[in-house]
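Write out the 3D structure for:
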Amino acid sequence: MKKILAASLVLFIFSTTTIISPLVFAGPGSDHSHAPSAPILEAEALKTASGILTNRVKKGKMDTSWGTVKPEKIIQKTFKSEPEWVITFNNPKVENKDKQTLYIFLSLSGHFLGANFSGN
């Protein structure tokens, strides 16, 4: 009889905590929303892209001559029906003309999407 009572008590406690715990920890803003983030302004996109370039230079992924290059141009361009920020950097110190212009792509909400030298 004691074993049945103990098992029932354990089952009751387990059931209660699994039912109540999500209610205790859930609250406003605790959902994991997949809604799109708000778009960033042009100035924020320029700052973000510059930071990305700086980080790539620090990590050794880009030549140090890119460390002082400022954004030259920013436009919104649509790829696969999704608008993106395209930030252009030009580094005349690079000997290879095909590698002098770097394009950094950001979503309109400011997430890094990629970078290349072709602009596509």
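The longest helix spans residues 2-25.
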